[in-house]
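Students often ask why inverse folding is considered easier than folding. One informal answer: many sequences map to the same fold, so there is more than one right answer. In these notes we will look at a single instance of the problem. The structure comes first.
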């Protein structure tokens, strides 16, 4: 479920905007939730623990700091690669600053236009964000994404050879592609759920059969275009033969 975060230091406005956001989620039947509505940037970042994607509604002025929301947005852009940012503010003069700092917000909502206009804008923004993330999800099936520390990486799924785990490195997975080898934190179960086109040939291996070169059914050895190999479990061997036979027909 896609998280939504609201940063607004006025109690009445925070309550109103939370209501608008929750109503918009229902109206758009969006797979989203308002994860946090807070008056403090510290609480925002304490709650927002490195999601890959999220929606942020930010007041520009927090605790008499006219650019607190702007500063928060800059940090969000660094930590949340697919963040969609919407400012709700009285400071129309700062809209150009968001461009200068390359924040590229989805929307810039002015409080002076009144609650009816704000409610309509929030509803439209949630609908637009839902469409954006739906399109990204379809596209991302062709892209393999992973994270090492605070850095995000992506490669074409066509380049993925295999992903595996080793007993000597619990909690780590290793990716072998046509052009690189990388290790990062993760689990094969979660990767398999996100990328169902990868084949689980063994408890420790996920493979891209599009890059398979040959399969020795007697030895249960799968060989790939780069010369790498992996063992196929007895249970998965029959399923693999069926897949390969269907591809040949």
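Output (designed amino acids):
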């Amino acid at each position: 479920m896609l998280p939504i975060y609201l940063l607004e230091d006025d109690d009445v406005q925070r309550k109103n905007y939370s209501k608008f956001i929750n109503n918009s989620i229902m109206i758009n039947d969006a797979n989203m939730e308002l994860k946090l509505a807070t008056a403090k940037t510290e609480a925002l970042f304490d709650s927002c623990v490195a999601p890959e994607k999220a929606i942020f509604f930010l007041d520009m002025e927090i605790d008499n700091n006219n650019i607190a929301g702007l500063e928060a947005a800059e940090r969000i852009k660094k930590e949340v690669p697919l963040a969609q940012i919407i400012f709700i503010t009285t400071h129309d003069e700062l809209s150009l600053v968001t461009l200068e700092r390359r924040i590229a917000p989805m929307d810039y909502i002015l409080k002076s236009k009144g609650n009816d206009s704000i409610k309509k804008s929030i509803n439209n923004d949630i609908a637009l964000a839902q469409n954006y993330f739906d399109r990204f999800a379809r596209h991302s099936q062709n892209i393999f994404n992973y994270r090492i520390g605070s850095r995000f990486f992506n490669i074409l799924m066509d380049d993925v050879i295999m992903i595996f785990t080793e007993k000597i490195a619990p909690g780590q997975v290793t990716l072998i592609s046509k052009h690189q080898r990388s290790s990062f934190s993760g689990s094969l179960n979660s990767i398999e759920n996100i990328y169902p086109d990868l084949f689980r040939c063994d408890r420790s291996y996920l493979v891209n059969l599009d890059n398979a070169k040959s399969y020795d059914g007697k030895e249960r050895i799968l060989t790939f275009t780069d010369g790498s190999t992996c063992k196929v479990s007895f249970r998965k061997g029959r399923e693999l033969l069926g897949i390969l036979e269907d591809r040949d027909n």
